[in-house]
């Protein structure tokens, strides 16, 4: 049940949004799709859900279970994209939208939907246009988590939500996954909040996939070496360094892999967070303090 992408590109005029992207989403896995503004995340998810047409390229292949995905209604019905784009009539009541979703996708999880509306205190009798930004997001989240789709793409799913509701959303992601394991792909700028949810992080930058790493591997092998700049630079000279921050005579150097023993007494080693990893991979040199 793998979703496989090979040699996928997309241009808007002279701007290349995606450049020869090849990627595999495995079944029953929670991914984080991470990138800076304009990196190509939304374009990628929109193409996979048939909302944007990719460049015409004979080498491009997008398959689900080895069947072509694009323009294939049967296979596309197994995918669901929640994004900030509103595809629902503004004057429609939330509960009616739930019913429409069930007609299209089938097997809507009404029990989970009821629990979520109760916990979020969402009035499903209200029309979509009368909801605040945060509650429109909540309504779309409920729809996404209650569909039977095998691949659920969540593009900026916590837009307009306060911290308490974001925490509640993350707990419902876990509940929905445990109740019916499937693949979730979460794209968000609030990286630290999803780090404990996801199993694999995919980093996209300037339309290209620059990294794919298991979170367990990052936790085991991602290290930050801190201390005097000269000593830290010498110690990490032969390591897999992905970036560094400098301030005055001090340095934080970000590495992936085992560190040589012993660590000099004037240096400290700490774990690298997913946020650290993402920032170091995607921050241009001109953005960093020197």
From TrEMBL:
UniProt-recorded Gene Ontology molecular function terms: ATP binding
Xref: SUPFAM superfamilies: P-loop containing nucleoside triphosphate hydrolases
Domain ABC transporter positions: 3-231
Pfam families in UniProt: ABC_tran
Keywords from the UniProt entry: ATP-binding, Nucleotide-binding
Gene source species: Holzapfeliella saturejae
Keyword field contains ATP-binding: yes
InterPro entries with a match to the protein in the record: AAA+_ATPase, ABC_transporter-like_ATP-bd, P-loop_NTPase
Protein name from the UniProt record: ABC transporter ATP-binding protein
